[in-house]
Task: structure prediction
Amino acid sequence: MFHALLVGVYVDDLVITGTKDAEVAAFKEEMKATFQMSDLGPLSLYLGSSYVSRFMQRPTTEHQQAVKRIIRYIAGTLDHGLYYPRCPGEAHLVGYSDSDHGGDIDTSKSSGILFFLGKCLVSWQSVKQQVVALSSCEAEYIAASTASTQAMWLARLLGDLLGRH
Result:
């Protein structure tokens, strides 16, 4: 039988779930013994839920259809996951950014960023840019600037984890 423990991290919050309650409880106890933390109980609100959460106050039929598509996608991908094999030698951090100038019909400010450590995806985000770009070139520059900031943070984090400063 397949067993899984999933930990979602958002800033300083953890969302912990798994196929065995005992494994989830043991993980929580280990985390409490290592870090100062509190258990807020079952998840009742998660602000990271994709793009549609922006429209919770006044959802339209289109938003409800989008939520249904998201739920169908999740239901159809329960067997999927990310695989992180050991990287032989030293893995390099590689990042990509892209911007969709004017593609977001609500704000015209969307971009995405991916970072790989070797062949393993370790960081990704789809963000709403802080400003509206006047050209596709400017939109790509903004996305690359955001990716550069993330790259510097990841490089420092890796340095800390590996004891390299």
Notes: Residues 136-162 form the longest helix (27 residues). Strands lie at 5-10, 13-18, 93-101, 109-117, 120-128.
